[in-house]
Amino acid sequence: MKNTLSQMRNHASSIFSAGLEAVNPADAVKNSCVFNGQELVCGDQTYNLGQYQNIIILGAGKAAAPMAQAIEKMLGSIITKGLVNVKYEHLATLNWIEINEAGHPVPDASGKQGAQKAFELATSASAKDLVICLISGGASALWPLPVAGITLQDKQKTTDILLSCGATINEINIIRKHLSLIKGGRLAQIASPATLICLILSDVVGDDLDVIASGPTVPDSSTFGDCITVIEKYNLQDQLPLSVFEYLKAGLHDKSKETPKKNSPVFKKVNNIIIGNNLAAIKAAEKTATQLGYNTLILSSMIEGETRVVAGVHTAIAKEIIKSGHPVSRPACILSGGETTVTIRGNGKGGRNQEFVLAALPDIAGRDHTVILSAGTDGTDGPTDAAGAFVDSESFQKACQKGLCPDKALGQNDSYTFFKELDDLLITGPTNTNVMDLRIMLVK
Amino acid sequence: MKNTLSQMRNHASSIFSAGLEAVNPADAVKNSCVFNGQELVCGDQTYNLGQYQNIIILGAGKAAAPMAQAIEKMLGSIITKGLVNVKYEHLATLNWIEINEAGHPVPDASGKQGAQKAFELATSASAKDLVICLISGGASALWPLPVAGITLQDKQKTTDILLSCGATINEINIIRKHLSLIKGGRLAQIASPATLICLILSDVVGDDLDVIASGPTVPDSSTFGDCITVIEKYNLQDQLPLSVFEYLKAGLHDKSKETPKKNSPVFKKVNNIIIGNNLAAIKAAEKTATQLGYNTLILSSMIEGETRVVAGVHTAIAKEIIKSGHPVSRPACILSGGETTVTIRGNGKGGRNQEFVLAALPDIAGRDHTVILSAGTDGTDGPTDAAGAFVDSESFQKACQKGLCPDKALGQNDSYTFFKELDDLLITGPTNTNVMDLRIMLVK
Questions:
Q1: Using the beta-carbon criterion (under 8 Å), do A326 and B299 form an inter-chain contact?
Q2: How far is CA A374 from the centre of its chain?
Q3: CA distance A161 to A178
Q4: Cα gap B103→A26, rounded to integer Å
Q5: Helical axes B169-178 vs B152-164, angle rounded to 10°
Q6: Residue-wise pLDDT tens digits, B339-371
Q7: Could you tell me the sign of the dihedral formed by the alpha carbons of A108, A109, A110, A116, in that order?
Q8: Is the CB of B411 inside 8 Å of chain A's CB atoms?
Q9: DSSP letter, residue B260
Q10: Residues A82, A199: contact at Cβ < 8 Å?
C-alpha cells in the first residue's frame, strides 16, 4: 500500500514536470518558429527575413527573458535591436536585445520607461521592417503606458475604484484598454505598416487573444461609449480621477483616439500565435501519464470557480472511477487545468492549488489508492513559496495522527501551514513560465 | 442551426426518459428479483419460498406503492400480509399489502401509526418467516417511530435544533438513529430471527446503505457516546427537549438500548440489495445517447456542491470539447448525476436543476451547438411543478430578446420564473421514483 502510493506520488510529479516542460518559454518559441538561415516559419506563415531592413524584438511578461533568449539563439545578429520588460530578477543573458526590469503586479516608473521605449521602437518601424513581439503572463502590468495627461497613479487609482465597485474584469479591461497607448490593439497600430509577429504564452482561461496582456496586437471590440456605460453603471463619475473621466468623455467625440477595430488595416500584416497554453501543458502531461500506464482523461483546461466546490467535482469523479470504472477505468489519470478562485474566510496562509488539495483530502480518505496533485505552472501558489501540494488516500489518517484537522484548516484558508506540517508541499521555485494551474488525479 | 438544436433537445429528452425508465420502481423490482413459482432469486441469493411459513412485506418511501405492486404481481397470494407507508396520494392498487398514506417531508401521526404497525409485523416474524422490505426515498420521514417517552414533536424539534446549529447531516443522523425504533439497523433487529430481504431504491449520493432511510436493515457504526459528543460539540445540553437528552444520556449506560453493530447476529440472514440508483439511470441514459450517435462519457453519479460552480465545471468541459475534442470528441454527450445544493441569495422561485441550467446558460451562449438538460428523477425540482429545464446555445439571445436577464435571475435564485417565460421548463409530473438528479450535456 505504502509503496503503491509513494510510486503514484512520483508519477504525479513526473506528469506535472512533463506539463511544465511543454510550456517552457524557450522551447515554446523554438517549437512554434523555425529559421533556416533565410526563411522564418511561424505558425502557418513563412517570412523571408532577407527582405526586411530591420528586425525589432519587443516583449513583456514574466517569461519575456527566456523567450528573448530563444529568439536570439534562433536569429542571432540578424536582430537589429530590441527591448523586453521583465519582472525584477526574472533575467537572462541577452546580446542583442536590451532587458529592462520593472514592477509586477503593481506597475512602476521603470515599467513605464521601458514601455515608452518600446512604443518608440514600434513607432519607428517602417513597412520594410519586421517586429517580433513576445508576450507572456504579467505583460499588462510590465508594459504600463497611459495616454498623455494621465499618470500611472491615475490609472492605478482607476483600476482600484473599478475593482472595489464590483465591476467585472471585462468591464475593467474595457476602460484600461482605452487609457493605454499599447493595449487594445494599439501596439499593432503604432507598429503598422511594419510586419508583426506576436508570440504569445497564454496565462488566460480560454486563450482569448484580446484578454491576454489586454491584447496589444489584437482588434478591440469595445469603445469609448462602452467606457462611459461602465462608469454610469457604477456611478463613478465623481470618484474617478478627473483626468481619466475627461479623457474618456473626450474620446466619445474624437474618432482618432478610438482603439483599432476588427477590419482596421493595421492588423493586415499581424500574425498572432499562441505558442504555449494550459492545454499544451495538459496534453504533454497526458502523454507522460499514458506512458506510465494510466488510462488518461483530459477533463478541461478551462476550469474556473470556487476552489473547494471544483475539488468536490474532481473527487466525485475519483469515487466513480473506484465504484464503476467511469469515466475511465483504473489505473486512471484525470487531468484538468485553468484557474479557480478562493473566497477568503479565514486568516490562514495558502493558495488556490493548496486549498484545492486540502478540500479534496477528506473525500479520498481511506479509499483505494488515490493521489491528487494541484500546482501553479509558474511555481507559486498564492503568497507562498510552494507551487502547490500533494495528497493521497492515507493523508487524512496521517494528518489526524499529527493533530492536524483538514476541516479547520480549510475554514481558515490555512492550506500552506497544514501541508507544511504534513510535509506535502510541492516546491519547485520559479519556473519562468505561466499557463495557470495543473491538476492531476491518479486512481489505482 | 435551429433544426440541429431542436433535434438535440429531442435527443436530450429521450436520453433523460431512458434514464427514468431504468429506475422505474416496478421494473427495478422485477429486474433484481426473479420468481419461478418456487424459488425467488434476489441478487446473488436464492430463497425457496416453500420453506417459509409467512411472507411479510414491509415498505416505506415515495416509490413504495409501485414497488409493492411489482412484488404482488410476482408473488401474488403467497404473500401472507404486508403494509407500506407512502406519501399522500402516491398510491397504487394493492390486493394483499395494506397501504397507508402519511406525511412527507414532515412526519405525521398517520406515519407513526403505520410505522408502529410495521414494527409489530416485524416483531411478530419468527425464524420460519421471510420479511421483504421495500425502501425508497422519503422512507426516513414516512417511517417515524421514536423510542418510548419521546414524541414525534420532540424528535422534530431535535432535528430542527441540530440543523440550525450547523451540525452535519452525518451528525444529525447519528442522533436520529438513536432515537428511533426502526432506523440504524433496528428493523433488522426486531425482524430477527426471520429471513430478511431489503430491496432499496437509492436516493443518496454514493448509495451508502446506512444513510438511505437511515439504514433500518444495516449495521450502525455510531454509538450513544457519539450522540453525546455531538451534543457537547454544539453545546445543545440545554436546548434539546429534556426527554431526548435524558434518553441519550441513559443510553450511555444501557447496552440493550444501543443500535446493532457490524458483527451482530441480527444481520446474519439479511440481504440488502440496491435495485436502482443514480448510476443505473445514468448507464441507461448512456446507452440511449450512444445509440443516438453521441460519444458518451459518464462523469460521475456522485456530484455534489454549490450548483452554479458545478455548472461552471460542466460548461468548461463543453468548451474544451469544442476547442480540442477533450474529454470526448463531437458529437459528445456528457452525463452526470448526484445532488447539488443552492445557497439561497434571493427571493425567487426555482430548484437546483433549474438553477444549474440557468448558471450554465451564459457560458454556452453563441457557441457551437450545445444543449444542456438538468432534472430531478422524481419529476420535481424545488418547490416548483417542473422537473428541471433545458437550455441551448441560442437561449441567451432568445432570453435577451424577451428582456430576460440570466445574471439577474441567478442573483435572485429565480430560475423557475426565467425558464417559464422562456418556455424551457421540463415538466414531467410525478415519476414515482427518485434517484436524485440527471444532467445531460450535448455538444455537436
A1: yes
A2: 16
A3: 16
A4: 68
A5: 160
A6: 999 998 899 999 999 999 999 999 999 888 999
A7: positive
A8: no
A9: P
A10: no
CB-neighbour burial class of residue B93 (10 A; exposed 0-12, middle 13-18, buried 19+): exposed
Three cell numbers written together for B341? 445544493
End-to-end CA distance of chain B: 11
Query: Least CB-CB distance to B301: which of A206, A301, A320?
Result: A320
| Contact by Cβ (8 Å): A137, A434 | yes
| Cβ-defined contact of A305 to B326 (cutoff 8 Å) | no
Instruction: Decide: A360 and A316 in contact? Cβ < 8 Å.
Output: no
- What Å distances lie between residue B193 and B71, B83, B199, CA to CA? 22, 20, 18
Cβ(B335)–Cβ(B438) below 8 Å? yes
Q: Over chain B (444 residues), what is each successive 10-residue block's mean pLDDT? A: 88 97 95 95 95 97 95 96 93 94 92 97 97 94 95 93 87 94 97 98 93 95 96 94 96 94 96 97 98 98 97 98 98 97 93 98 93 95 95 95 94 97 95 94 98
The grid coordinates of residue A317 equal 469523479
- For chain A, the straight-line distance linking the first and the last C-alpha, in angstroms and rounded, comes to 11
Spatial distance between the Cα atoms of A69 and A283, rounded to a whole number of angstroms: 25
For testing contact with chain A, the best of B274, B301, B317, B320 (most A CBs within 10 A): B320
B166 Cα distance to chain centroid: 22
Give the whole-angstrom CA distance, residue B355 versus residue A354: 29
Q: How far apart are CA B352 and CA B309, in angstroms?
A: 12
- A191 Cβ contact list (under 8 Å, min separation 6): A122, A123, A125, A131, A133, A217
CA–CA dist A372, A440 (Å, integer)? 6
- The answer to whether the CB of A54 falls within 8 A of the CB of A128 is yes
| B122 closest CA partner among B72, B183, B69, B194 | B194
> From CA B13, how far away is CA B18, in angstroms rounded?
9
- pTM flag (> 0.95): no
How far does the CA of residue B385 sit from the closest CA of chain A (Å)? Answer: 28
ipTM confidence score? 0.91
**Nearest CA-CA distance, residue A338 and chain B, Å:** 9
Does the beta-carbon distance from B319 to A279 stay under 8 Å? no
* CB B378 within 8 Å of CB B281: no
The 10 Å Cβ neighbour count of residue A117 is 16
All cell numbers assigned to A301: 483546461
Cell numbers placing A194 = 511594419
Q: What is the largest CA-CA distance in chain A?
A: 71
Q: ω into residue A260 within 30 of 0, thus cis? A: no
Cross-strand bridge partners of residue B438: B337, B375
Q: What domains lie within chain A, and their CATH numbers? A: 5-18+279-443 (3.40.1480.10), 24-145+180-222+259-276 (3.40.50.10180)
Whether B326 and chain A come into contact, CB under 8 Å, resolves to: yes
Q: For residue A417, which of A364, A327, A347 has the smallest C-alpha distance?
A: A347
Amino acid letter for position B430: P
CA distances from B332 to A382, B2, B281 (A): 36, 18, 18
At residue A430 the predicted structure's pLDDT band, cuts being 50, 70 and 90, is: confident
Length of chain A: 444
- Cross-strand partners of A160: none
C-alpha B361/C-alpha B379 separation (Å) is 22
- Report which of B64, B69, B68, B71 is spatially closest to residue B88, judged by C-alpha positions: B64
Whether residues B313 and A300 touch (CB distance < 8 A) is answered with yes
**A80 neighbors A69 (Cβ within 8 angstroms):** no
Alpha helices in B252-394 (DSSP H): 278-291, 307-324, 352-364
- Contact check, Cβ <8 Å, B316/A303: yes
**How far apart are the C-alpha atoms of A236 and B26, rounded to whole Å?**
63
- Show the cell assigned to A418: 497544514
DSSP secondary structure code for residue A180 in this structure: B
